[in-house]
Structures are given as structure tokens and as C-alpha cells.
Amino acid sequence: MSERRMDCRCVARLCVLSLAAASLPVWSQASVPPTPVIRADDLPGIVVTATRSEQQPFDLPVSIIAVNLQDIRADTASINPSESLREVPGVLARDRQNAAQDEQISIRGFGARTTFGVRGVRLYVDGIPATMPDGQGQLSNFSLGAADRIEVLRGPFSALYGNSSGGVIQLFTADGTDPSEWRVMFGAGRYGGQRVELGTRGIAGGLDYNLDVSRLSGEGFRRHSDAERENGNLRLRFTLAEGDRITLVANSVLLPHAQDPKGLTRQEYQSDPRQAAPSALLYNTRKRVRQNQAGLILEHDDGHAGQWRALVYYGERAVQQVLSVPPSAQISPLSAGGVVDLAGGYGGTDVRRRWDGQLAGRPFELVVGSSWDRQNQQRRGYENFVGGTLGVTGALRRNERDVVWDFDQYAQASWRLSPRWSLSGGLRHSAVHFGVDDYYVTAGNPDDSGRRSYAATTPVAGVLFRAAPDWHLYASWGQGFETPTFNELGYRSDRSSGLNLGLQAARSTNFELGSKWRWASDNRVELAWFQAQTRNELAVDSNMDGRTTYRNRGSARRRGIEAELALSLAPRWQAQLAYTWLDARFAQPVSGTTGTRLAGVPRSALDASLRWGGSRGWHAQLQLSAISAVIANDANTARAPGYALVDASMGYIMTAAHLQIAPFVRLDNLLDRRYIGSVIVNESTGRFFEPGPGRTIYVGCRLTFR
User: What span, in angstroms and rounded, lies between the C-alpha atoms of 90 and 128?
Assistant: First the structure.
């Protein structure tokens, strides 16, 4: 028996013993002095992503939801954001069971084309970008154990965050507690690996702090999917005289070892869903990532019903990935090889001013700001063989410096023009500049240096009507744009060298109608109808041996309905439902076919849960997730069938003196269904399918010392 399996079983047994032991015995007003800073988690339902100031989502003409990550009854492993984002309508969050490629995240179909990482959706941690200036984002630096909530903004107002804003996902670190506390969490499970987390948070005079570190390791559901990941997150907030604040946010992620099992053909999936693609074993496909980032935020109340906020951040990221490109495909002097090596720094700043006042005697808020970001990376490519040995770093085949920078200006305002009507709007101008300096120039490989710039002005507008105190209606409209990322510019479809600088930016026009109804504080129903028309849609052109090329694919339309329901059925019973129906299609079929549906986007998705329990003692949850069939290629000739999964969890919360013990156990895919969890869009060899795991048990325990 391996040492890793022994560790897994020991942790599982300890958690089971712990479980058994536990069963024993408003709108801002003008001319009002600045109020003290209020912690967002002290106010129910407060969000900041939509307007950049604390607001009740019920009073905003947008689709936005805050997912609480502090609810100890959730009984999640806190490994990936998809554990919590599944309950947000309009969001498709899929754990690919492949740490080398990160999770698949799309919002209303934006970002569905991605083969790794997150594109088309902006990511933030405590207001600091987790999306690179070129639009490529990663979820691996989301430290869930330290987080208070995740806010998800969908629809037109996402455009106020600039390039690649098909939606916005922002994680907020939890505030310190008084008294201070230490947190320990450990867990293990079949396919889920072993995870250990240690954290502390508290308040010491004017200092509010939260520190969290964690380590994850596991063998994975599929063969050749071993992975290790280490995360660290620190937030320090200093409250100065007159309520000014300085916040330091630093996070780190190390992925020293992540194997890539790649996708399977339908025949391979039917034969053995746990197998890895033969080429993955032949070339030992794998990935290594190291990223460190820090940011500083200064907030100053100027005493005139306004606030200044300045942000500066810097980070460094290094990635090395071994692909399965065969040596025969690297004979051409234009080939970039089969090993990708990226390293470099990135950073930026954002400065904004907020005014709270009156316009025509009615409450009015205005935010004006500007941001600048820059990314400078060295991109190298090597052969993935030395002689007859495959899967190793060989001769240099590519060497270039890639630089991208953006400079944006934005303004947004909200005005409550009457007791029943509110108007919101904004404008953002974005300019994004790409440049490459080629240092690998040979007789057969010309100088591929080049430059490309994109720019757009994106307006948004919304109106909210208070039909009744507990029923609000709204409409919103906006325009957005999305540039290709460096990874999408990285390779040309004709296999020639250099960046694909011919790619155009996608432009979209978005419209949304919505209804929000709430009653008895814990009950709400929200409905939204939306449509997005996109020109120059960015799409996968080919995907072979881990290397992907892209092209513009004409116009596309996304149209759908979202529904969210939250009910308190009884003092200890809660029900929740999130449903999405989405029709996403191109205006014209692929040449020679009749296929028009966007690949990677299911027609419908449902998540429903029933929870029982309180803040102490026993609690339990039953959850249903259902996804309709997913098209895997633009020709619409391959698809992954739909599926429905049932998950169950239970736990016990025991509090004694200064210690809280919360063991839990969860069973995912309770009925042991065989299913395809995600697809690789337009995979050229037919290996579209990434299977999901069968019945999985995960046992964990959270200890809190106060």
C-alpha cells in the first residue's frame, strides 16, 4: 500500500471518529457626515462588485449574487470554486478532474471556448485582478478557506470592468474576528485527494488580519492525473485616523506537479473512463506553475461625502508545460516545439473617486476612475524529446518577449430620481496593446516581431422600478468587447511561426430584463431574461496534441432565462434552486455542415438542494445537479450526453468553551452514474471527452479555536 493511500485512510478514519464522538453528549444620503466603516459581512446580502460601493443587490438593476463561503454547514472540501458556483444561475463551473488545465468557467456562454484557464470572464481577489491584462485568468490562486464570499456579476454591467467582461467573479477574504481565532481543516476522499489547511484571523487594535495556508495532493479520478497544490493568502487591513484604511493583500500558488491525462475519444470513454490518453503516457504530459502576487489598497474619506481609493499590485508567474506534439510535427523550422515555458511579471494600478450627494434633490452617487495594467513575459518553446527519449526538454525552438498593456478610463453613476425609480449607467474606454519581440531568428524561421492594438468604448445603462416594497423590476443594456489573449494569439492555424496578429476583438451588445421578489428576509425569487449579440466571435479553430489555435467565427447570439429560488420551509429547513436555459448559436453554420450551436454550452442546467439543520448539532443536505447535452465541436457532429447527479452530505457542529468541532462526510454522485463532466472544444483527434468521477466519498473536519 502506498504512503499516499495510507495518509488518505488515516485522515478519513480520524474524521469518522470525530463525527462519531460529536454525536455524543440603503442608498447614500447627501449632507450626512461620513459614517464609520461597516464590515460587509455584518450586513445581509451586501455586494460591491456591481457599483464599486456597498449596495443591497435587491436595489440594483443587475443580475448579481453573493455566495456565502463562511457557512460551516455547507460541508464542502473547499478545493475548487465549482463546489459553490454551481448554485449560481447562468454560471457553468465544471471540475475537469485535471489540475493541469484548471476548471472550466463560463457565464451565459461567455468563456465556453477555453481549453484551459478562464477567458471571457474577469476574476478578482479583494478588488485586485486575478485576470492578466490580456484577458487570461486563473482560479488556482483563489484561497477558499480564507474567503467570506464569492460575488458573481452577470449581464451588461460586467462591461464596466473592461476587456473580457462577459461576467465578473470576485472573491472576498473574510474580515478578522474578535476574539481572534485559529482554524484547522483536514480532509481526504476517494479521488479528491488529501487537503490540510491552517489559518488565523483576528483584530488587534487598528489591525484586521487573515492568514491562510493549505496543501492539496491526490491521485485523481483518472490515471496520470496526480497533482499537488499549495496555496497561501494574507490580508492585513490597517485602520488609520479618521477612518482611512490601508489594505495589503498577498497570495501565492505553487503547482509543482500536475499530470495531464488529456481527453478521450468516445470509444475510449466507453471502454474505460478512468484511462488516460495514450499520448499522455507516452510524453508524460504535465504542467508546473508558480505564482506570487501582492497588492496595496488605500482608502481615504475626504470629509465631503466622498472617498478616494488607490490600488497598486504586482505579481510574477512562471509556467512550464509538456505537450504531446510528436517529433514528426517539429521537423519544420517554423515549429515552436512541444514544451511551453513562460515566465514574467505583471502589475498595475487603479485610482478612483466616489461622490455621494444629491442631484435635483434626490440621492446620487458617482464613481470616476482610471486603470493601467502591464504584463511582460518571456515565452520559450523547446522540443519535447532528446534523441529517442520523449517527454523531456530538448532543443530551443522559440524565444520571444511578449508585452501587453492596457489603459482604461471609466465612470458610473446611480440616481434615485423618485421613491420608485432609480437609474444607473456607466461608460468605459479601454485600449489594449500587444507587442512581441522575436529573438529566435534562423535561416528557416524569420523575425516574427509584431504589434497589435485594440480599443473600444463600452456604455451601459439600467433602470429599476419598485413595483412594491418587496418586488422590483429592472432592465439593463450595454456593450462589451473581448480581445484575444496571448495564448490565443500564440499559434497560427497554418502552422507558420509567430503570433496570430490577424485575430479581431469580439464586440457584443447585451440586454436584460429582470424581476426580484423577496419576503420574510430569507425567501426570494429572481428571474432574468437576457440576450447578447456578438460580432467577430472568438472560437477554437483546431486543438491537437494540447496546442490550440483560434479564429474569428462571424456573429453569435446568446439568449436565455435564469431563475433563482431560495425558501425557508421551516425553522430548520431551507431549499434552493438555480436554473438556466441558454440558446447559444452562431449566425452561420460551419462550411459544409448545418451546425450552429456554440460548443461547450449546455442548453439547460439545474441545481437544486434541500438542507436541514441549524448552527449547532446535526445537519444534512441533499443536492441534485442536472446538465443537458453539450456540443463538443463547431460542426455539431460530436456531443457529450446530458446527466443528472445526486449528492448528499451530513455533519455535526459541536461548540464547547473556546473550541468548535465540525466533522462532516459527503457522498458525491450518490447513484454512481457514468458521465462526461466536460469537453475539450474542437479537439482535432476526436478526444473531446473528460469523464467525471463515479461515487465519491469525502470525509473532513473543521476545528476552530477562539
Answer: 24
- Predicted pLDDT at 288: 96
**Alpha-carbon gap, residue 225 to 216, rounded angstroms:** 13
- Band (pLDDT 50/70/90 cuts) for residue 594 is low
In the structure grid, which three cell numbers stand for residue 582, read together?
Answer: 441558454
In this prediction, residue 34 has a pLDDT band, given cuts at 50, 70 and 90, of: very low
In a domain, 296, yes or no: yes
Identify the pLDDT of residue 454: 93
Does residue 558 belong to any structural domain of this protein? yes
Specify which residues 232 forms β-bridges with.
213, 252
**Domain extent at residue 66:** 3-282+292-705
Mean pLDDT to the nearest integer, 103-132: 88
Q: Are 105 and 318 in contact (CB under 8 A)?
A: no
Name the pairing type of β-strands 471-482 and 450-468.
antiparallel
Q: Is the pLDDT of residue 480 over 60?
A: yes
Look up the CATH number of the domain holding residue 680.
2.40.170.20
Q: Are 166 and 148 in contact (CB under 8 A)?
A: no
In a domain, 287, yes or no: no
Cα–Cα distances in Å, from 239 out to 35, 206, 243, 276, 297? 14, 5, 6, 52, 12
Secondary structure in 3-state letters for 432-474: EEEEEEECCCCCCCCCCCEEEEEEEEEEEEEEEEEEECCEEEE
- Indicate whether 117 belongs to any domain: yes
If one counts the domains in the chain, the total is 1
- What is the pLDDT confidence band of residue 115, given thresholds at 50, 70 and 90? confident
- Nearby residues of 174 by Cβ (< 8 Å), 6 or more positions away: 41, 69, 70, 146, 147, 148, 201, 210
